[in-house]
Specification:
This protein has 551 residues and is α/β, with parallel strands linked by helices. Helices cover 43% and strands 9% of the residues. It contains 23 helices and twelve strands.
Length: 551
């Protein structure tokens, strides 16, 4: 292929990727339970490859360019990741200098645009951290075919002992990272413990429940009764509030009816399905509409932003909501400690229809969620150094740096285990915990490593947060898709179908719930989806799932 034709091919791929759709590969979260019996890593059970105790990778004479979107929690204390103590420690230990290239802060769509511009320019750094599965049309396989990134299969087998050891310890992670053809294109961000696999779900005001003498809800009817009490007895004007997008990653109410909100893998038959195309979707809409009609569901749920949601929760307008355990639950508990000392929250197990049942679907990540993966580009002139540097991140010392930071500064070893110092736990500058962790470790972010459970739990200083994650974990499955690989043709076709489908589904969802469209028209809605080729989209997802299951 001539250089001109190669560039044209890349440009075409990039233009197509601008149409990447939210539902291309379904919900990215899924249940990893039962896939591995290995316990979560701690300081004594890290990978047994190169521990990083030997010779340095380089002597300060090699600089690698590393493109990644900077974690927003970092921006309060640093302009560039090179300023962070953890990366200075990485340079000290490896002898490799890293020159970071950050896209400007913005929305996910804006960062995607900047990524696409970089790819189209054909002026690539040595390494790119990205969600190659979801945010590149055709996935990493197509990126390699286009000459953008390298096939790392052989390089990892021969020169990445730590990642290889991790794959041997967690075969399910290797399965998720590999392509359908058995190729490895990235150094992955991976996780294998409940502290990182589960991080969002439904929450209620525990102090209100206690005041009213109400037990935690189990069923949808329980939810109705509690929300009614919040409205009538506590004066809540929006008893249940959430940003509608939060139901994408925590389909807690959908699971009661045996479906998920987008594409999912049926826990009973293992088949690919699309929640809004199932008959049970009408039951979900009926339940939400009743809550809306009765003044139990926030009338602004479809359009409100995080600021509006925060105001309702902290002012007592709402007593139940759906959010994350750290940036949501933890932040509210901290905010209200002085404003209202009685304020208390509790995580609630996703509801069912009958007591004693278990919700089919809730929130749970796969061990390899796809995000935060690092690929080496074809323009890298020091591939072996890049491979060794990335592999070092999975070594014992590398894991300690990524999880805890700098020894005798942000952590110390006590009885053979790392412990954060007061620099982190009681920051003298008064920095929020998440900002300190983002400065001294990679815990709040992504990248080529595996979070250690104890370090991850440091993000959650409240016992309510730990208990919430335990409650949210009591579901049969997330139901969501594993990290499947779509061919370029599948990705393009699925994107075309789902761009139209999602627009229609979102529109009709609001009309049904808000009463602008009678539920008696549900069958007509289903026929419209059928005419939009939703069944072909499901078939594409099923084909990708079948290939994944054969890996």
């Amino acid at each position: 292929m001539s250089k001109v034709n190669r560039i044209l091919s890349i440009l075409l791929s990039v233009l197509l990727s601008l149409g990447v759709f939210a539902g291309c590969s379904g919900d990215k979260k899924a249940d990893g339970a039962g896939n591995s019996n290995a316990s979560s890593a701690d300081a004594n059970t890290l990978n047994n490859g190169d521990t990083g105790g030997g010779a340095k990778i380089a002597n300060g004479d090699v600089t690698l360019k590393y493109w990644l979107a900077m974690n927003p929690n970092i921006t309060a204390t640093a302009k560039d990741c090179s300023e962070l103590p953890m990366f200075r420690e990485m340079e000290k230990q490896t002898g490799v200098k890293i020159e970071f290239i950050h896209p400007s802060q913005g929305t996910a769509a804006q960062q995607l645009e900047q990524f696409n511009i970089m790819i189209a320019s054909n002026d690539l750094p040595d390494m790119i951290q990205w969600n190659w599965n979801l945010d590149f049309q055709g996935g990493p396989t197509k990126a390699a075919q286009d000459g953008i990134i390298l096939d790392l299969t052989d390089k990892i087998a021969s020169g990445a002992p730590n990642l290889t050891a991790l794959f041997e310890k967690y075969p399910i992670i290797e399965k998720q990272v590999k392509s359908d053809e058995g190729k490895i294109y990235v150094f992955p961000y991976v996780k294998d413990n409940d502290s990182t696999l589960v991080w969002a779900g439904p929450i209620m005001r525990k102090d209100w429940l206690d005041d009213l003498g109400l037990a935690l809800p189990e069923t949808m009817d329980d939810w109705t009764n509690i929300l009614t009490a919040f409205k009538n007895e506590k004066g809540a004007t929006a008893p249940l509030t959430f940003m509608d997008s939060s139901l994408d990653w925590s389909p807690c109410f959908y699971g009661a009816y045996g479906i998920s909100r987008t594409f999912y893998v049926d826990v009973d038959d293992g088949k690919a399905k699309y929640g809004p195309y199932q008959a049970a979707y009408k039951d979900v809409l009926t339940a939400l509409k009743k809550w809306f009609d009765d003044g139990l569901l926030d009338p602004d749920f479809a359009t409100q932003n995080a600021t509006a949601q925060d105001a309702k929760i902290t002012s007592g307008q709402s007593g139940a909501f759906v959010t994350s355990v750290g940036g949501g639950m933890g932040r509210y508990l901290t905010t209200m400690e002085t404003e209202n000392p009685k304020f208390d929250l509790v995580g609630v197990t996703p509801p069912v229809l009958k007591k004693g049942e278990q919700s089919k679907y809730g929130h749970r990540d796969y061990q390899y969620p796809g995000s935060g993966s690092v690929a080496i580009t074809t323009q890298c002139e020091n591939v072996d150094v890049a491979v060794k540097w990335l592999d070092y991140c999975y070594s014992e010392k590398g894991q300690l740096i990524f999880n805890y930071g700098v020894e005798n500064e942000s952590y110390v070893m006590a009885d053979g285990k790392p412990q954060f110092t007061e620099l982190v736990t009681k920051n003298p500058d008064g920095l929020p915990l998440v900002s300190v962790l983002a400065r001294y470790s990679n815990i709040p972010g992504l990248g080529p490593y595996m979070p250690i459970e104890d370090a991850a739990n440091a993000m959650y200083p409240y016992q309510q947060q730990i208990e919430a994650k335990n409650a949210w974990n009591k579901v049969k499955s997330s139901g969501a898709f594993p990290p499947v690989s779509l061919t370029t043709e599948e990705s393009q076709k699925l994107g075309t179908i789902m761009n139209e489908v999602k627009t229609y589904v979102d529109e009709m969802y609001l009309k049904f719930v808000m009463g602008q469209e009678p539920l008696s028209n549900f069958d007509q809605y289903i026929q419209t989806l059928k005419g939009m080729d939703i069944e072909e989209a499901i078939q594409i997802q099923q084909a990708a799932l079948d290939r994944y299951n054969k890996r």
